[in-house]
Specification:
Elements (H helix, E strand, L loop, with lengths): L12 E5 L4 H12 L3 E6 L2 H12 L5 E5 L5 H14 L5 E4 L15 H29 L2 E6 L15 H20 L4 E8 L5 H9 L2 H7 L14 H8 L10 E4 L7
Parallel strand pairs: 1-2, 1-4, 2-3, 4-5, 5-6, 6-7
Helix pairs in contact: 1-8, 3-4, 4-5
Bound molecules: NADP nicotinamide-adenine-dinucleotide phosphate (NAP).
Length: about 260
């Protein structure tokens, strides 16, 4: 296989949770450009429709499923649907997640903590178990968990430590399952993005305009990432070129964690 073929994803089907906007949308586009068919999951039907129109124009089979992945139970329902009604999934990107709440630990209601841990961690566990379990049976698969540099450091000037907690746990889960499934042709890796300019961050920055400058001052490259900059890394992890890599955490943060 020549070098460039190792980055091709022709004949593969990728499921991207949260694939309609932000980093998920950017990874979906990169997969489609590399030849993969797509299944995109998100809550809002209009966002999915837009992504469907844009990505179908690349000539791939793109399916969308409007679904709220806010709990382990809903993730189970989604997996039931996918395993029953859709073709095999070769590449799973567990991307849904986010901080969502800026709350000090001393003020964090237990229910909120549990809900956001489920959003960031339990859904990834369920999709890995069910869809990754099917990959294990077939003998080939790629699982990419979208963690965060908050799995390595605590973000300054914002609360909601469910986020750091869940992302550390997602990295631990990645490493352990990677070891378990290494003999079965399924690699399990994680990406740790730093600050990227997506809707989630635009919301924080609009609530407190000085926050964007504060974050940029912490990044050696002096700027946030553009979503399209995560695409090539995801394609690498999804293809043959990364076949000897499993359990890795790949940081892409403009140098944020160097200081
Ligand atoms: N952006 C960053 O700087 C950054 C940094 C580190 C890590 N990350 C991680 O990267 C991932 C994506 O972040 P992002 O900034 O791209 O987020 P985003 O801009 O908010 O996009 C999130 C995507 O997920 C979907 N989504 C959100 N909640 C959902 C739910 N309950 N069920 C199903 N789909 C849902 C959204 O569509 P709908 O709203 O229509 O559902 C959208 O497609 C997250 O895990 C986040 O923690 C992001």
């Amino acid at each position: 296989m020549n070098l460039w073929d190792m980055f091709r994803l022709d004949g593969r089907r990728a499921l991207v949770t949260g694939g309609s906007r932000g980093l998920g949308r950017a990874m979906a586009q990169a997969f489609a450009e590399a030849g993969a068919d797509l299944i995109l999951v998100g809550r809002d039907a209009d966002n999915l429709k837009r992504a469907h129109e844009e990505l179908s124009s690349l000539g791939r089979d793109v399916r969308t499923i409007a679904f709220d992945l806010d709990s382990g139970a809903s993730a189970e329902q989604l997996c039931d649907l996918l395993l029953r009604e859709h073709p095999p999934i070769d590449i799973l990107v567990n991307n849904v997640g986010g901080r969502r709440e800026n709350l000090a630990t001393e003020d964090m209601p237990l229910e909120t903590w549990q809900r956001l841990i489920d959003l960031n961690l339990t859904g990834a566990f369920v999709c890995t178990k069910r869809l990754g379990g099917a990959m294990r049976t077939r003998g080939w698969g790629r699982i990419i968990n979208i963690a965060s540099i908050c799995g390595q450091i605590a973000t300054r000037n914002i609360g909601g430590r469910h986020y750091e907690t869940a992302k550390v746990a997602l990295v631990g889960f990645t490493r352990a399952v990677a070891a378990d499934w290494a003999p079965f042709g399924v690699t399990v890796n994680a990406i740790a993005p730093g600050g990227f300019l997506t809707d989630a961050n635009r919301r924080w920055f609009s609530e407190r305009p000085s926050f964007q400058k504060e974050v940029e001052a912490l990044i050696p490259m002096g700027r946030l990432g553009e979503p399209e900059e995560i695409g090539p890394l995801a394609v690498y992890l999804a293809g043959e070129g990364s076949r000897y890599m499993t359990g890795a955490l790949l940081t892409i943060d403009g140098g944020y964690t160097l200081w």
